[in-house]
Amino acid sequence: MKxxxxxxxxxxxxxxxxxxxxxPVSSVVPAAEISATKKVDRNNNYVIxxxxxxxxxxxxxxxxxxTYNVWFVSSSDETRNVGQLNSRNAxxxxxxxxxxxxxxxxxxxxxSDGNVTYPLGQEISRTKF
Length: 129
Known about the structure:
12% of the residues lie in helices and 46% in strands. It contains one helix and eight strands, in the order αββββββββ. β4 (67-74) and β5 form a beta hairpin. The protein starts with a helix and ends with a strand.
């Protein structure tokens, strides 16, 4: 009984340290369900996980694109491309990123190139922590 209580307390504390943000329904890909979680790891870095379900392939958009890029905006207003969501062969896509900077905003764009340094394509959705 004590072990179960200790384990439950630990899980509660671990879960309470993470914050979750839901992306609003996108007018570009309305079937997509996108969320993000942010937690602090033991090295005081921020671990942000973006999960998407039912995200249409970017080549089906108008105009067609090649990838979905994920962008972070830090608390000091710096925007950074942190990776790509691959939705070509799955009903779900995810990306986990470790950042030394606190992230205040996460947004996703449809881009022709995954290596752009600033957003050029159509914004899919945006959320705040």
